[in-house]
């Protein structure tokens, strides 16, 4: 997830909370949450593809090593973000499953 996408997601949540309280979410909060997850996943895939493109250009002698390192670092950060979100979702699910009925 690139920093600009994170900023936009944060701003949309904050502006929705300030105006209407619920942030434009349905009662279950599913559509907003799903859209955020979708955006995070698409961003991670885009970062990975950009890194692969930079690596192939460097192998062909058309790219710079600095660009490759930057792209790979960005892709790694995106993957770590996705894994952190996944871990939090799993943790929340397990907590809900432990709740008594």
- Strand % is under 5%
What is the terminal separation in angstroms?
37 Å
Number of helical runs? 3
From the alpha carbons, calculate the radius of gyration and give it in angstroms. 18 Å
Structural class: mainly alpha
Q: What is the typical, i.e. mean, pLDDT?
A: 77
**Low-pLDDT stretches:** 17-25
Task: Tally the structural domains.
Answer: 1
Number of strands: 0
Description:
The structure is a single chain. With 101 residues, the chain is an all-alpha fold. It has one domain. 80% of the residues lie in helices and 0% in strands. Helix 2 (30-59) runs antiparallel to helix 3 (65-98). The termini are far apart.
Secondary structure layout:
Elements (H helix, E strand, L loop, with lengths): L2 H17 L10 H30 L5 H34 L3
Helix pairs in contact: 2-3
Summarize the structure.
This protein has 101 residues and is mainly α. It has three helices and no strands.
Characteristics of this structure?
101 residues, mainly alpha, 3 helices, elongated
């Amino acid at each position: 997830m690139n920093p600009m996408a994170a900023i936009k997601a944060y701003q949309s949540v904050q502006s929705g909370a300030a105006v209407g309280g619920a942030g434009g979410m349905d009662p279950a909060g599913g559509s907003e949450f799903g859209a955020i997850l979708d955006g995070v996943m698409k961003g991670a895939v885009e970062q990975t593809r950009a890194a692969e493109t930079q690596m192939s250009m460097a192998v062909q002698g058309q790219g710079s090593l600095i660009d490759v390192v930057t792209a790979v670092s960005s892709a790694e950060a995106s993957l770590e973000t996705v894994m952190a979100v996944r871990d939090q979702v799993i943790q929340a699910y397990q907590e809900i499953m432990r709740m008594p009925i």
